[in-house]
Sequence to fold (676 residues):
Amino acid sequence: MSRIEGVLQTLKGQGRKALIPFITAGDPHPDETVGLMHTMVDAGVDIIELGVPFSDPMADGPVIQLACERALKQGTSLRRVLAMVSEFRKTNDTTPVVLMGYLNPIEAMGYEAFADAAVNAGVDGILTVDLPPEEADDIAPLFSHRGLDPIFLLAPTTTDERIRAIAGHSSGYVYYVSFKGVTGAAKINVDEVAEKVAHIHELTALPVGVGFGIRDAETAAAVGRVSDGVIVGSVLVDTIARNQADIDALKRALTDLLNPMREALDGLAS
Amino acid sequence: MSVKLTEEMLAALPDARGHFGAFGGRFVSETLMDSLMTLEQEYMRLKKDPEFQAAFDKDLADYVGRPSPLYFAERLTRETGGAQIWLKREDLNHTGAHKVNNTIGQALLASFLGKTRIIAETGAGQHGVATATVCARLGLECHVFMGADDVQRQSLNVYRMKLLGAQVHSVESGSRTLKDAMNDAMRDWVTNVDDTFYIIGTVAGPHPYPLLVRDFQSVIGRETRRQSLEKTGKLPDALVACVGGGSNAIGMFYPFLTDESVQLYGVEAGGHGIDTGEHAAPLCAGRPGVLHGNRTYLMEDDNGQIASTHSVSAGLDYPGVGPEHSWLKDIGRGNYVSVTDDEALEAFRMLTLVEGIMPALESAHAVAYAVKLAAKMDKDQMVVINISGRGDKDIHTVAQLDGIEL
Fold:
């Protein structure tokens, strides 16, 4: 059982929902990322999605675009992100880490070399935004054979046939994109999400995480009620942007954002 | 090494998933997959639909003004002292470039699909103008994304688009050029996917765009082939076209791919020179990677981050290239070369002075290479240059380089 499956199964047994933060690695500086990861674990998160910065993040809104620019300006590369995960693993071998990003940095490194390095670093899952399963025939097995969970996106536009096929290529969890749009837009419709996620649950046994548009305890609880986990990205990345000059203040701000989400999600269990 | 291509081989490309050999494909986020698959199905159906093709041909004739002439550049030929140089006059199309062939086709597709809102990216502004033009004609809402730097250097085209009723969105992110315009167009599309049709301007992007843009632009090569036989009784020995994304080049090359005797030259933007790193020549100096929905040659750093590009010509200032060109390069059928900004500017002046034809700076790259090529060829041989657009839009750029304030 992979670390991701283990964590999600334990949560399920407890009747709890996963809190999954996303931050862009290397933002505001590569030296700070591991500290921010530990801060988020202390605030009660279950799985960390670590964004690998890319020069052309087509699926992202302005908040994460700017985070990518800041991280790249500070010299963040895929290799350096893997080094951050290794560093994180020195003191934490329980919290799963999913690398989320675009295909080209992985292609440039070479798929096998990347897969080996990711396993060695202690990465648990790989989510590549611009790699639909149709193009992943050769790539996804390189991940799964090494115990890395390939995680794919589902969208409001995904047909039933594709949901089944995508789930067949996935392990760990599937990531449901809550609305048609880029990250950071505020247009989530909880009723629509509830309907679609319930439908996805009929088509696959995999846990369903929901991301895009979750920005506070209220939306987290509303989405947590109908899914297995909530993914929180742009609001955290925006907090990093606003507090980049003062790392202690930044860590407090992240904790202040995540604590109420954790409480709200755990409130659903009781 | 060059492979002999047959009609059967070409008919099988791209494959069902949009691959040209190792290139092409469909690398987009899941939200867009359904739209792309619908577009592919509908296009494959309409491609064989006589009604759709007749509507397309009629628009090309009556609205664009096709066929465009194949013109013998007699004085340029004399001055060059080599092969006969002929010009395929895409600059004479309505809106002044080859781009309109494709926007006519895609706007028809959009109408057949019932989409009412059109988006497009543009570099030099020619594709934006061609899109705004067909939208004005069909009464469609039009949004054009353009890098902030390009908005600056192509202000005339920006105003043209506005006059045509389009909204021009200046893109401030990234390198503020064509690739960033394409990023923002993709972001708009994913947000408004239900009612929006994305008219991509070149043979790049996710499947089926490289296929359908190539099909719409192939009218250039089909006409050239027929006109060449009519006027000279033979096929040209060489075709020369500039390559940014590569739509005018593939449109010219495609109907000649199985004609082994016809050499194909795609001319990339050498900028300040390939060895300076400041250029936009992925086929000459890049390597395969994935950007904007397809695998193709790219300009990137060792970490897979897309590199900034430079070209005096906004339309060639792009770090990628259509996947079919990447395939033609790898199988040895296409020759991909580059010329510098300075060479292109010199060719711009030369064609203007010698033939009274002012080419777009993009097309001037093809002129610069073709003149060098023709000089080394025999007098009974024939080179066709695709003059993909007219140069009026570049007068500001050229004047500025001359230190003249207009």
Notes: Chain B has two domains: 20-60+99-213, 65-96+218-401. The CA atoms of residues 64 and 94 of chain B lie 5 Å apart. The interface with chain A takes residues 17, 25-35, 173-174, 179-180, 183, 186-187, 190-194, 288-293, 298, 300, 302-306 of chain B (CB under 8 Å).
